[in-house]
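ok so dumb question maybe but i'm new to this and my supervisor (M.) told me to 'just get the structure for C40 family peptidase' and walked off. so i did the thing. is this what she meant?? sequence i used:
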Amino acid sequence: MTAALTTSLLATLGDKAEAAYYHTKAISVAKANLGVPYRWGGISPSGFDCSGLVKYSYSKAGIWLPRTAADMFNNRGYRVGSLQPGDLMFFAPTKASRPTHVAMYIGAGKMIMASSSKGVMITYTSNTYWKPKYIGAKRI
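this is what came out, is it supposed to look like this??
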């Protein structure tokens, strides 16, 4: 193996390890806030809205995200078809409208989110309320 190839391979592995760290850390922060009440515009452990929870969790992992679900969807990450832990899942009232809700995929068919009815909670991606509103996912 050439030195250039070895360096390239190590850089790629380093990037993947770093990304896995950010995702794991963000999920851990979000889980530590289970039960925190919903607060529209909330971005702290005293109360979160959906994008506030995601922004806060990723900020604790060292990643800056925009404030709203729509801005996260339009301005960060890249679209993915197959979910991995840490991916952001976006939801909208109709398939043609802009995202109004964001959740974080945590693996095993589950996502964590700030729900207006239950605060920070974990639910299944197959949830009958959210599944029809799903419009796509992005990896940060």
